[in-house]
Amino acid sequence: MKKVAIRPFENKSTEFELGDIVYNGLVKEFQKDGRLKLVTQQPDCVVEGTILKLEEDVYSYDSWNNVQDYMLRLTCSVVFTDLINNQIIYENKSLVITEPYAVSPASTAKCRSKEEAIDELVSKLFRNIIQNSLETW
After folding, report:
1. Are 33 and 19 contacting, i.e. CB atoms less than 8 angstroms apart?
2. 45-61 and 67-82 beta bridge pairing
3. Which among 42, 135, 31, 40 is positioned nearest to 83, based on CA atoms?
4. Rounded mean pLDDT of the chain?
5. Model confidence, pTM
6. What share of the chain is helix, strand, coil (3-state, %, to 5)?
């Protein structure tokens, strides 16, 4: 397999733009990785998925009981299919990826905003797909 197509993810979350963010982020990650050439026609394999939900919960408080961090939890369904042999290489119908982000200057979270945390979730989604498909060959 040398060519991959990424299909836009169906977005069932309440975050209107999340489908586009995930799609564009995966495109960038695959381009940066370079193992598979990104194409729109005649791919050897395809990545498809559905964003089931994006949840945001309080993750930690400081000593004065103020919120310090939130945790984002992305739940999605992902399928990576080999179109040459017509077989699923990787599938996870309820993949959950998490990333904390800071709302307090005292936080130790890597991400300093919700937007940064969403970008990190997309990177983790890409790594999960790669680790469970390409790196198992």
Report:
1. no
2. antiparallel
3. 42
4. 94
5. 0.91
6. 25, 40, 30
